[in-house]
Structure formats: structure tokens, C-alpha cells
Amino acid sequence: MLTIADRLDKIPFILVDSKFQSKEGLGNELNFHVFDYNPDEELLVQDFILELPERMLRVNTMKQIQIFNLYQIVIHFFERKKYIEKNFLMEERDGSEQLFNRMRSALKVATAQDEIVKYITENIEEDTIVIITGVGAVFSLVRSHVILNNLQTVVENRPLILFYPGVFCNGTLKLFGVFEDKHYYRAFQLVER
After folding, report:
1. CA within 20 to 30 Å of 168's CA: 8, 119, 136, 143, which one?
2. What string of H, E and C letters represents the secondary structure of the chain?
3. Are 17 and 148 in contact (CB under 8 A)?
4. What is the mean pLDDT of each run of 10 residues along the chain (193 residues)?
5. Percent of the chain with pLDDT over 90
6. Minimal CA–CA distance to 115: which of 91, 83, 93?
7. Surface-to-core class of residue 155, CB atoms within 10 Å of its CB (0-12 exposed, 13-18 middle, 19+ buried)
8. What is the spatial distance between Cα 6 and Cα 136, in angstroms, rounded to a whole number?
């Protein structure tokens, strides 16, 4: 079994591999991958992601990565709408469950107007490897399968990697190793455990 450091060290070399970039061996599936890790390794993974652009340069590649942090996207949305203070007041008055319901409604999660998907669509650059982070921080609002499903048409011709604090096994996800998602994911393990 590899350590988290060993697994993370493999990522830049995988990303520059022409087979990875060209979807070779994926049987016509989407070029979607999951890097799962133990939730207690979150800070190590976050540090790695911040260093990843520099590591990519060290392996002599011009391939660009683009990181989308779901938590930051959600915060940006509510700041732009000037809802942050209102959200705090609503939670104090109505409770967390009511707040989460209202936030999901405002974000239009799992609809054709999903604000998170819209943000990614509007900001995605050509010929990049897309990296999705922040899954654990927004799990009360957004499920991973919703994001992956809604990004299929947006990211279809480029690799996508979902950094996932939990377990990805046989096409299913288990957030934090506890919350099992019953959906099947058309994704591949980026680096075996």
C-alpha cells in the first residue's frame, strides 16, 4: 500500500503522459478520474494541489492545469449576491437545515441553471486539465455525482480529476469513508491506493 506522499508524487507524471491526455485505454469513456484519500490527509492534499502547477513545470510540460475549488465557488456566488450576512441571520433564525435548503435553491443545484457548473463553464480555459477540489467542504450542499454528471458536456474533451476525501471503489464513492453515494461514476482511479 502506497503512502499519500507516494501517491501524490505520481500525479504530475500521470498528467503529462500522452496516454492520459489522449484517453487511450479508456474504452471511449470520459476522461474523468478520482484521486481518493483519507480525510485526515486533507491538509497534505491541499498543499500538494497548491504546488501542482510548479511540479508540472519540473516534469517539463507545457500542459496547464486549472483548479476549481467548489467551496470557493460557492462563497464567491454568495458574496457576489450579497447573501453572506443574510445566510448567517437565516441560520440563526431558522436553523442549519433550512439554510442549506435555501442555499441549494439559490445555487440551483442539479438543474440546468446550476450556478457551480455555470461558473466552471464560464471560466474554463482551452486545453487544460481540470481539477475539482473542495468536495468535503460543500457536501451538505452539493453531491459529487451531480457535479460530475453536469460537467460531462462542459469538460468532455479534456481530463478532469476530482480530489475526493473518502473512498472511490468499483465506481462508487464513500465521502469521508462514511457517507456512501449509491450512484455509479463513470470515472477511473487516478492513483491506486
Report:
1. 119
2. CCCHHHHHHHHHHHHHCHHHHCCCCCCCCCCEEEEEECHHHHHHHHHHHHHHHHHHHHCCCCCEEEEEEHHHHHHHHHHHCCCHHHHHHHHHHHCHHHHHHHHHHHHCCCCCCCHHHHHHHHHCCCCEEEEEECCHHHCCCCCHHHHHHHHCCCCCCCCEEEEEEEEEECCEEEECCCEECCCCCCCEECCCC
3. no
4. 94 88 64 94 96 83 87 96 92 92 92 93 91 93 84 85 91 77 76 91
5. 56
6. 83
7. buried
8. 22
Length of the chain: 193
Residue type, 173: L
**Whole-model pTM?**
0.90
